[in-house]
Design brief:
Keywords: Signal
Organism: Murimonas intestini
Signal peptide: 1-21
Strand order of the largest sheet: 3-4-5-6-9-8-7
Order of helices and strands: EEHEEEEHHHEEE
Number of helices: 4
Strand content: 25-35%
Shape: globular
Structural class: alpha+beta
Largest sheet: 7 strands, antiparallel
Protein name: Lipoprotein
Helix content: 10-25%
Distance between the termini: 11 Å
């Protein structure tokens, strides 16, 4: 059976390939790609092993494995995300195969959160098709989307590809997390339902 996505904390990784150290969205290149009507985990592939994820994401000794076999990395150095932000990432596995990931970025600064979200929206408009949830809002300008976020205090976009691979982006204003209050950006991705032959 497929493992359900768990809402998780995001971590910061040492990543490369960004245009500049101030590009707040280029880290997405390592987590999200859209090819042949399928959502892929960036430069990786779905259903690879834990060792392959550690090697390809260059996690090294900074990653820890939980009792349930999931990989967790917290608040590592990432050149394109402000070091004052709290960051967490988790990679989820089923039967030893990579099936989903989730990222949280938490900041107490409204301006900082909006700058991050702006970068993510603009990256998505260049690299992704229209989402299946909140399509009309996605088609609006970035400034309009931010205005809606300020008014509603939450904005979500969801992509469901034909093979059922999945991507979700959430932005929430002043939400409680671990006994404190943050602006939260949450991104999550999930593999197709059908495991390719040879990966079972």
């Amino acid at each position: 059976m497929r493992k359900h996505l768990i809402i998780l904390c995001l971590s910061a990784l040492v990543l490369s390939g960004c245009a500049s150290a101030t590009d707040d969205s280029c880290f997405l290149d390592n987590y999200v790609a859209y090819e042949n009507e399928s959502i892929l985990p960036g430069k990786m592939k779905w259903f690879i092993s834990q060792d392959e994820v550690i090697d390809q994401m260059k996690l090294g000794e900074d990653v820890r494995e939980r009792d349930d076999g999931q990989l967790v990395a917290d608040n590592l150095s990432i050149p394109d995300v402000n070091q004052d932000d709290e960051k967490h990432v988790r990679f989820y596995f089923e039967n030893g195969r990579f099936v989903s990931w989730e990222i949280f970025i938490l900041t107490k600064s409204d301006a900082r959160c909006e700058a991050l979200f702006t970068g993510i929206i603009e990256w998505g408009k260049k690299n992704l098709p229209e989402p299946q949830v909140n399509t009309a809002l996605w088609d609006e300008s970035t400034d309009y989307i931010l205005g809606q976020y300020r008014e509603d205090e939450n904005v979500s976009f969801i992509w469901n590809a034909e093979d059922m691979s999945y991507l979700r982006i959430d932005m929430t204003v002043q939400a409680e997390y671990l006994d404190d209050v943050y602006n939260i950006i949450n991104l999550s991705g999930s593999a197709p339902r059908e495991v390719p032959e040879g990966k079972q």
